[in-house]
Amino acid sequence: MRQSQNGGKRVLIVGGAGYLGSILSRKLLSNGFKVKVLDVLMYGREPIEEMLAHDAFELVEGDMRNISTLVKAIERVDQVVNLAAIVGDPACTLKPADTIETNFLANRALAEACKYNQINRFVYASTCSVYGMMEGDEKLTEESSLNPVSLYARSKVQAEEGILSLEDENFSPTILRMSTLYGYSPRMRFDLVVNTMTKNAVIDKKIFVHGGGKQWRPLLNVEDAAEAYMRVLQEPLKNVKGQTFNVGSEEQNYQILDIAKAVKESVPNAKLIVEGEEKDLRNYFVSFSKIEKTLEFKAVKQLKDSIFRIKKAIEDNRFSNINDPKYYNVEIG
Length: 333
Hints:
Number of domains: 2
Number of strands: 12
InterPro entries: Epimerase_deHydtase, Lipid_A_modif_metabolic_enz, NAD(P)-bd_dom_sf
Pfam family, one: Epimerase
Shape: globular
Domain NAD-dependent epimerase/dehydratase: 11-248
Protein name: NAD-dependent epimerase/dehydratase domain-containing protein
CATH superfamily of the largest domain: NAD(P)-binding Rossmann-like Domain
Strand content: 15-25%
Helix content: 25-40%
Order of helices and strands: EHEEHEHHEHEEHEEHHEEHEHH
């Protein structure tokens, strides 16, 4: 059973101004946590601007790869959530050295600093991409073999192993393997599959599916993702210490083509274009029974509702320049 009181616990969110972090920061503040954010603010401070005046919010602007910045960030915190990473295959391919430095080396250094300072609860954001290419048709559980097919996924596997190896009586890491996120956020992204398809459907009246679209992907709304992190922070430590959880919804394991069809239902005048041979080796159908049983976590946000919300935000001109680089973790053509 989850704790009902958060007791003013101070949580450091590394990457707290990002797509997921800006939502998680708000959610924790509204549930009685004190929130400290370490973020390089690569995409500006607008996503967290409204929180800066909150008495329980603190911002440390800087890069986690800088040791002095990292040490300052972990001062006077009880728990750490690490969301910071170079995210996704395209961005990692463009910056391989930065990927290893940020996704593996800096993550390991942060975990070691937390252990040294006896910050016991440490939550690390990994990815279901570590499963890579599914063999057979069985659902992938936390015990399934890892088969990463990209630098991004390999860096996450290395980080998981490094962090879990530090576990002892004073350091209790939890690994969350995230589904592909979608939905509206204060730090909006249009380089995630659902968001990208919706944007292209509304703006260009085209929905592209590359490689046939038969690949499986687990999806999760970003607001549900934030709820999962809060559940881990509220759970008695003995239930999450040293544990790995797939985070998502079994009902939201989708084939890429079916995602495109869901977008077309909301934007019927868009043309669905399926092209090319299978090039993306990633293909994984994931089980989420462990997090449902242990944390009583169940996704509540639905894909179609989220597509409609993004569509309406675009139509209402919520984004002054939808091609602004701040909406993308990788440069667009």
